[in-house]
Every structure is written in C-alpha cells, then in structure tokens.
Amino acid sequence: MIDAWERLAFRERLWLCVIASALICALAAYDSGLRLHVRSYALLIVTIFVAGVSPLIRPDRFGRLKPIIEASDAILIFSVMGMIGAVASYVAMVRSGGMTDMALDRADQIIGFSWPAIRAAVDARPDLLSILTQAYSLCFYLPFLIVAMLICTGRSERLYDFLAAYGSSLILTIFIAFFFPAEAAFKFHDYANVPGNGLHYGTIIQGLRSGTLLDIDLVDLGGIVTFPSFHACMAILFVWATWPCRFSRGPMLILNGAMWAAAVPIGGHYVIDLLGGSIIAIVSISGTVHVRKVTRYPECHQTASGYRVSVGTL
C-alpha cells in the first residue's frame, strides 16, 4: 500500500484526497439529515463523471494541449473543493452548538476594533464602499487568473501546491468553524442595510439552525463561515500562489489586500475572523511546502519511445 502511494504523483494524490473528502462530506451530510435538491442531480452526475475521469488523464501525453488540460484540471479541482467546503460548512452549522457572536465581538473590542464604527466609516464614503464591494467579489475571479498565470509561465507545480494549500485551508477552516458558529456582524449588530451577500448567507444559516433548510442546492451554495474568515485566508493564498511571478506581485498585493480588508465591512466579518483566516493560510502554506520537500513523487522523463518514470524527491 505504501509503495503504491509513493508511485502516485502529487496531482494524483491530490485528486484522491479530494474524492475521499467528497465521500466523507456526503456521508456527514446524509447523517445530519441534509439531502440533495432535485435540480442538483444533473450537476452532481456531471461532476462525479468528470472527477472520476480526470485523475486518469496524463496531461504530458497531450503535447501542445498540455497547458489547456492542466488548466482545466486545476479549475475542476478548485471548483470541487469549493463545493465540498460549502456543503461541509452546512453540516458544521447544523451540528454545532450555540452562536459565538458575542465572544467574537468581544475579541474585537479587546484588540481595539468596533464593527459598527468600521461599517459606519465605510458607509460615509460611497466611493470606498463601491471599491470594497467589488474587491470582496474578487474571490470568484482571481482563481481563474491565477491558474492562467501559473500555466502560462510554466509553473504547474506551483499551481498544484496552491490547490493543496487551498484544500487544507478549507479543512482547517471548517473544523474550527464547527466550534465557533456565528451569524456574523450584520445580524449581531442589527445592521439595517444588509447587502445581498449578507442576506443570502443569513437566510441559509437561519434555515439550517431552525431545521427548515434540508435540501442542499449545489447550484446556489453560499459561504456561511464567520470565524475564521476564509476570505482572508484566500487573499493570502492568492498572493503566495503568484509570488514567483514578479510582474504580478504589486497588483496581487493591492487586489488581495483590498479583498482581505473588505471582509469586515462588506462580508460582515469581525476583525478577529481575518486574523484567524490569515493564520490558517500561513499554516497551510507551510504544511504544503514541507510536504513537497520531504515526500517522494514519481518524476516523468520523456524518452524517444515515450515516458520513463522514476521516483525522486521534489
């Protein structure tokens, strides 16, 4: 079993971990009384089929099409991870204890921050509000840019490292969120003009806690984790992923810095949430780098007759 595991490449191991996580998440959701919404069946069937075939495909065998295959593979892994993470957060919310908003808000006060004051300051500046609102949504677009950037610069290894760090960050985030369920600052402080994203996840949280939301719609999943902030975690992961690309360092720092900060006034996060998410990102990055250094993976060397595989340490 160990020898078979060692013969698997990093990408293949990553896919196996994703598939295993999906199975565990599905069992946990079923055990929690959650079921799949009828309009999600088609998406689930397609996802299962593609996810089952993708690990068997060797991008190196596609010649000039290799970058396209790798990019498609990476986007698929990222999307499946996000879907698993969202469903897992629903399970955590159903099974967790009492809300911890009071403790999180108190932690903000201890470190010198007040969410109502921060939101009021942003509301007083329409231009800033508009910028932060756009920045908050960058998490939906930057992953595609990151994939394209790393593929086009020949950094596919870094791309899969990023995906591994992203996946481990999701696991840590959901695990910790189980012990710190919260409705977020919009609800806790009775903020009047709750933005669309706040209304969306607020409705989901209320439905999961009351037992009125049992059907999971994979087409309309929402992020419901307050502490730690996965938005803050992603901001750091995105910067780290593209750091080898010198030309992108400045823009990525600015864009992700704005996304990181927007999580408080736009996402309804407490400031302590951002600190927690940042720590998770650092831990996940460190763990991924360490695994890369100490684990043996097969290296593929092209020969005249095809590919020869040898095992080496990357």
The average pLDDT value, as a whole number, equals 89
Q: Which blocks of ≥5 consecutive residues have pLDDT under 50?
A: 1-7, 299-314
Give a short account of the largest sheet. 2 strands, parallel
Task: Provide the structure class.
Answer: mainly alpha
Task: Tell me the overall shape.
Answer: globular
Number of helices: 14
The share of residues in helices is 55-70%
Q: How many angstroms separate the termini?
A: 21 Å
Percentage of residues in DSSP E strands = 5-15%
Q: What order do the SSEs take from the amino end to the carboxyl end, as H and E?
A: HHEHHHHHHHHHEHHHEE
**Numbering strands along the chain, what is their spatial order in the largest sheet?**
1-2
Radius of gyration: 21 Å
Counted beta strands: 4
Structure characterization notes:
By secondary structure, this protein is mainly alpha-helical. It has 14 helices and 4 strands. The strands form 2 sheets. A two-stranded parallel ribbon has the order 1-2. Strands 3-4 form a two-stranded antiparallel ribbon. A hairpin with a 2-residue loop joins strand 3 (296-303) and strand 4 (306-313). Helix 7 crosses helix 13 (249-262) and helix 9 packs across helix 14 (271-294). Mean pLDDT is 89; it is low at 1-7 and 299-314.
